[in-house]
Amino acid sequence: MGENLLEIKNLRATVEGKEILKGINLKVNKGEIHVIMGPNGAGKSTLANVIMGDPTYEITGGEITFQGESINELEVDKRARKGIFLSFQYPEEIPGISVENFLRTAKAAVTGEEQGIFQFRKLLLEKMAMLDMKEEYAGRYLNHGFSGGEKKKNEILQMAMLEPVLAILDETDSGLDIDAIRIVTEGIRKIASEENSFLIITHYNRILDYLDADYVHILMYGRIVKSGDISLAKEIEESGFIALEEVRNG
Amino acid sequence: MDILMSQTDLSKNVYPEKIELDGSRIDFSGDGLIIRSSESRQLLSPFLDVEYIAGKDERVEKIKEFFSAHSFINAGYHIEILKGYKLDRPLIINQYSDNKRSRINEYNSIFLGENSAATIVFNYNAEDESEAINSRVTEIRVADNAVLNIIKLQRGNNSSLNLDYNTAEVHGAGVINWYTVEMGSRESISSFHTELKGNGSSGFLSSIYFAGGEQDFDLNYTMELTGARSLGRIESRGVMKDKARKMFRGNLFFNSGAVKADGSEKETVLLLSPEAKTESIPALYCGEEDVVGEHAASVGRISDKQLYYLMSRGLSLSEARRLLVESTLNPLIEVIPLPEVRELVNEEILRRLYNE
Amino acid sequence: MAKVKQDIQEPDRLVFDLKQDIDYRNKTWKGLSVELIEEISRKKQEPDWMREIRLRSLEIYKSKPMPQWGPDLSDLDVNEIITYIDPDFKKQNSWDEVPEEIKEIFTALGIPKAEQESLAGVGAQFDSEIVYQNMRNELAKQGVIYMDMETALQEYEDIIREHFMKLVPPEDHKFAALHGAVWSGGSFVYVPEGVQVDIPLQSYFRLNAPGAGQFEHTLIIVEKGASLQFIEGCSAPKYSVNNLHAGCVELYVREGARLRYSTIENWSKNMYNLNTKRVLVEKDGLIEWISGSFGSRVSMLYPMSILKGEGARAEFTGISFASKNQTLDTGAKILHAAPGTTSTINSRSIAKDGGKVFYRGLVKVLPEAVNSKASVSCESLMLDSQSRSDTVPVIDIRNDQVDFGHEAKVGRISEEAIYYLMSRGISEEEARALIVRGFVEPIAKEFPLEYAVELNNLLKIELEGTIG
Q1: Which domain holds residue B14?
Q2: Is C425 in contact with A81 (Cβ distance < 8 A)?
Q3: CA angle, C461 as apex, C457 and C464 as ends, to 5°?
């Protein structure tokens, strides 16, 4: 088991005064793939965005430690520079900025190094080929007029380019057909190493057919109610989240 | 002229009993509702001092001038819905012009107290073809959490002039929904000015018109967003045929302090004749950064492809046209809260589409 | 129209504020009188008909009221404006002959360098008169004419007489009349039938004298099937007194011809920019307006396209950026006067630090303009709540065979978009700047390259300190 990367202790968070996360505990070590499952409204996206540092949410208790340091107060961009990446469930459309231009700026920000135009372009085209994306995407405006599937692929492209230490995928599989899921998961597998970790949020099992997850956590009512290995996902598939209902009271 | 409250039918007075006008006076009160005739009243309203914010609009000036020149009032009501009282059936005000009543000078003031609700219909019509000049002013105040639905049906005859000025203030989290349907009069100049003063107040203005013959409509809609998180929508849908002309002026103001306010205007016009003239000025005035504002307008005609498609399914040309006219107006007819008014509007459109 | 690849160095903002200390004593003519106008006309050795246009314009000017709409002009006293500055040298076609202090300014603005590298010809006006004009030989051989208006009036009197102030008559409005009375300088371009001028010509207008007016007249005729790219640049150093610019641009695009007219207006913030531009487009012709408004205290500018011939097209692409103490009242007017005509208006504006942007536009479709298409899109971005952004598009349609669409938006930079960009490691300041740049990008890419660079620099300067 690798060294600890992310540790969340008793995390509570609210949005507009309403408590969504009610004491989350989670440990992610280097080289691990964690899956978080749970019904709609359980707080999965909130957890992802609180780790990323979305200012809409307020942390009301607990601590998020990344690489041994508390990041509770850290701004979004600083977190990104530390190697946290979030693949958004609903990526923003930013007209007027091309994918290429945007990623070059982001890559420079994350690495702290100017990106030479030609080297960068070569790298970008490589990664796009890996994700089976057409070259023309590089010149299109960021997410502008993209289909749902195209947006998700674009998120994975960004992940491949920015090489995060911790990648959080928020429902990246939803809205994708089987072929696209295969391409996306292949991309994830290629990026995955002993040095980085994944936190994959989903409510389907589909994506698990293509990935070897180390841990599965069930998030319900703002808490992780159960953790286990991949067999837990199968259990959910068979009996649904309702079977875990008693945990709420227990 | 009469006033009646009815549940379902515009022509029948179900409840309370029809209140006959005794000469020039009518007074009614009960169940949280006060109605007083405006006739012979002094014009107490600040209306004549109102500086119309969209600049010196000559048309509005015209209504004002006309009103002050004929300062007698021979129609209209003061309607008050008391705090917490929700009118459970619409209040319908029918007004007809005829050869005896050819100069209508109407003044209405409508006040909704906190947490109250009402639906009020003004049904303007003509009994005969005699020329009338109808000049109207309506002032409205909606208090916190109150909801007012106000429907104005204008079906004056083709020799009349209709001048209609409306202004509303919405306080607190109050709501006003305007439904204006313009189909009558030779010339109609109407203006609806709504100021959303309260934080979280909202206003919706739906405008439907059908102009044919040589009718001339001048439609002025202003929504001023002043309160934080106020929500204002103007949506106009119209059909024009023959030599009709129409001017649409939509003004959306975002005043300083209207943070997180959200406003939009949308206009759709369907032209059925090459001689119809349509002019639009969908203006947006923004003095606050933290707002969302947009407007969109489209003018089009029935495309041959659409007609072909519908006719290939067995519809006659006139049926296909009717369907496309309905599809233009329906999105707004559907939201009119009273089914009998919806029906009436639909019938009237058909009548006008097929030249009466 | 083919875009020419150009490699131009980034200009420094400071050059716009370079002032040349020129001794203006005994050279400046102030105010408006019949005597002064006759004197200008005499000095320019004009034909009688031109003198008559000037005198008639003066009468019209006096009889017309100030505009009763739009920005406040009450601080502008035309009687205090220097109407004409008498240069004591002749126009040159070699930079070496241009007086040193004037050459220095144009060099700092990068004009001679651009001329060598990416332009087919250059005209440079300093205050009231053109001081330099030159064009590549191969164009002259094809019959292209590019010269200052004064010389054109001597050499091509008939053409000038037939077109001068015919599109923008002095009766049009008060400042068109003022222009007619005191116009001086500007360019005349004539592109003969079928000739393609693919490398742009550029006229640069520099107003150096404090309290002065610039009234240049631009007349361009692009004959049947010909094409031209024309760039107009303008700047002035900042003074504490008001300057006035009341130029006039008249463009004729003949059958099947194309004209791309680009302007970057970067007047200093003591300038009243009350400019009138108009084009007449004949059958299947195309006008493309590219317009950037950044400078001036007050601008009123609404280029108008008259689509007179069947199938004529107009495309307007504009950006305005108003900051402190600026009111930029701009827009576009399109008149569809023939069947099958097409127009597109795409406008973006930004307001900050109490600046005011106003989009004022008109699309009018006449009864005969059947099967026409028009689309208008206006977007504005508010960077703070001291600023204002107003949009008033007038749409006047007089037949039913028209395809018309309009949309407009106003708003601020979305917090969600900033969060998204920051989640990729970009700082907040940079994220905001990126979004602003993205906002103008669709417009910026239409500019000639050297101006696109200038636009970027202007944005950078304008955005500094306001963001973060």
Answers
A1: 2-353
A2: yes
A3: 135
For residue B54, the chain C residue with the least C-alpha distance is: C392
ipTM of the complex in this document: 0.78
Query: Of A56, A33, A7, which is closest to residue A167 (Cα–Cα)?
Result: A33
Q: Report if residue A49 sits inside a domain.
A: yes
Is C429 touching A (CB cutoff 8 A)?
Answer: no
Minimum distance, in Å, between the CA of residue C117 and any CA atom of chain A: 24
Place of tokens 């015209």: B62
Evaluate if residue A232 carries a pLDDT over 50: yes
Q: State both tokens at B50.
A: 């109102």
Instruction: Taking residues A195-224, report their average pLDDT.
Output: 88
Structure tokens given for B178: 């305007």
Give me the pLDDT at residue B316, please. Answer: 73
pLDDT at B292 over 90: no
**pLDDT of B1 above 60:** no
Give yes or no for a contact between C258 and C1, defined as CB atoms under 8 angstroms apart. Answer: yes
Q: How far apart are CA A205 and CA A40, in angstroms?
A: 15
Per-residue confidence band for C100, with pLDDT thresholds at 50, 70 and 90: confident
Higher pLDDT, B9 or A218: A218
- Mean pLDDT, rounded, for C32-60: 94
Mean pLDDT of all residues in B307-329: 75
Query: How, if at all, do strands B187-196 and B161-170 pair?
Result: parallel
Q: Where are the strands (E) in chain A, listed by range?
A: 4-15, 18-29, 33-37, 57-66, 69-70, 84-87, 94-98, 141-142, 166-170, 197-202, 215-220, 223-228
- According to DSSP, the residues that pair with C214 across neighbouring strands are C245
C4 pLDDT band, cuts 50/70/90, is very low
Which of A237-241, C98-102, C146-150 has the largest mean confidence? C146-150
Residue C408: C-alpha distances to residues B282, C301, C411 (Å): 9, 19, 10
Residue numbers of the domain that contains A71: 4-91+164-249
Q: Is C438 an 8 Å CB contact of chain A? A: yes
Statement: residue A250 has pLDDT above 90: no
> Tell me: the pLDDT tens digits for C14-29?
567 777 777 776 677 7
Closest CA to B264 of A25, C408, C336, C289: C408
Separation between Cα atoms, residue A166 and residue A33, nearest integer Å: 10
**Would you say residue A114 lies in a domain?**
no
Judging contacts by C-beta atoms under 8 Å, the chain A residues touching residue C429 are none
Tell whether C406 is within 8 A of chain B (Cβ).
yes
Q: What is the DSSP letter of B340?
A: H
Distance CA A116, CA A120 (A): 6
* Selection from B270, B268, B274, B234 nearest residue B253 by Cα: B234
**Nearest CA distance, C407 vs chain A (angstrom):** 16
Q: How close C20 comes to chain A (CA, Å)?
A: 40
Q: What is the DSSP string of B36-62?
A: EE-TT----SGGGG---TTS--HHHHH
CA A228/CA C378 separation, integer angstroms: 55
Closest CB to C400 among B276, B293, B295:
B276
Domain count, chain B: 1
Question: Which chain B residues are closer than 8 Å to C385 by Cβ?
Answer: 256, 287-290
CA–CA min distance C395, chain B (Å): 5
In a domain, A56, yes or no: yes
The type of residue at C350 is I
Confidence of residue A245 (pLDDT cuts 50, 70, 90): low
- Residue A190 counted as domain residue: yes
Cβ atoms < 10 Å from Cβ of B262: 18
Contact flag B298-C406 (C-beta cutoff 8 Å): yes
d(CA C188, CA C207): 19
User: How many domains does chain A fold into?
Assistant: 1
